[in-house]
Amino acid sequence: MMFSQVSVIALLCFARTTSASCGFYIGKALTADGSVMLSRTSEEVSSHWLEIFSAKDHSNANMSVGVTEHASMPGRLMNISQASNTFRYLSMEYSDFEGFLAPLTNGGVNEKGIAVRDKWAQNRDDLIAMTPNPQMGLQYSDLARVVLERANTAREGVELIGQMSAEYGYANYGGNSHLIADANEVCIVWEMSGGKKLWAAERLGYIEDFPVDFTNSPDYMGSLNIVSFAIEQGWWNPNGTEPFNIFNVYAYQAEGYTARDGGAKYMSQAALENATRAMAPVTEKDLIERLWPSSVTAPFNPWWLGVKGIPPEYGLHRYLYKNAASTFLDPEYQYQEATYFAGRTFKQVLYYTCSNPEAFLPIVQNILHGFENASFADLKWVERSAQTLAENGQREAALDLLTFYSHARAEKALALGKTMVDTLDAYTKLTGQFPMPSGSPINDPGLGTETVNCLVGWDPDLPADQQTPLKTFRRQTRARIR
């Protein structure tokens, strides 16, 4: 099946709260070079670091999965069998969410070209309320990691999630999903809350109308009880006139929430799709220059799965790492912790930039775009040179070249970040624009008041047709949940 549409995954972008994650998939028929693109935005607070996991052989090994009693929906960890062989993969790891144990991953890409990204997909309240206490099973990060470690195709990734959920259960915080792509297709998997081992999957598209005989369709998969459970609960009448619609049956129930056009964000899923499709043929540069999938005050750096390592400045540090404030450093990390941390440096850029976004944001982003454009200008010769080396029997030299280039750009990016911090710091202080804190608690209490952002003129948590531009944006008070 040839997919020629853009999918900005709606199911996962219209959470009923102000903090959410969105997935972006662009099929090969709409990209400039015929590749597929997958990206994700998210708003986790904790420490983030880049990591490459080597392929490994495992002999009679187990892996610990699930959540603890400290999770937002308490559970118990369990051990399951690890695969005898796991693939090499690249992942952006992070340290904390809803009480889940570190390290966590939202996904990445493996050596087979399989990319996976998890995204929140909230279920209806009465289904969430059925979740056992304690709950057991693989949670969203476990499932993403299993796909990265074991899947050869997108479809195989879906099957792995289904098999794991059926055998071990699914531990959750209200429902989640995974977007799994390979070079030819993409699948969306929705794992349901409630402890009933419910899940549904569809090849590229919004999980809405769903065939009750889905086992006979190559475009749909799901748990064997996905239809019967809805009937048992009275959420769908098989003798009625309405088709079996996964979204209507299992999603959060509220007026105005639909799979593609609903939601509580400034741009709906449909608006994002239309804006992206208008750029076709789409390049990575096109997406980076749009606000929705890109970092506000940090540059994109090129990384290949074949690079031989990650610079320590981009690896694990204690900044925002869970329990860092109440524990001492393990001596094994003494040297790495002594380095600058890219995550901290560019967070400083963010704080200064967002103190006066109308003045600083255009300047900062112009600098970042200039840096990124220089990287884009190099990519063809770097990849062509590495390919030539590999084709002539010099595979290690090819990997050395890719590693050297990625590390060099990462080093220059960090130097650029430090320069921007120093410049913004000097300007803010010398012009008398640096206010000292008034004495309020340094941590946000989580009551819905505005946190640091670079948004000017619009409320991101209100659809465009429900607001008028403001001279200076201040977020409305409301509950903030991921």
TrEMBL record:
Record GO biological process: proteolysis
Signal peptide residue numbers: 1-20
Pfam families, A to Z: Peptidase_C69 (PF03577)
Family affiliation: Belongs to the peptidase C69 family. Secernin subfamily.
TM annotation in the entry: none
One function term, GO molecular function aspect: dipeptidase activity
Keywords assigned: Signal
InterPro entries noted in UniProt: Peptidase_C69 (IPR005322)
Protein name: Dipeptidase domain-containing protein
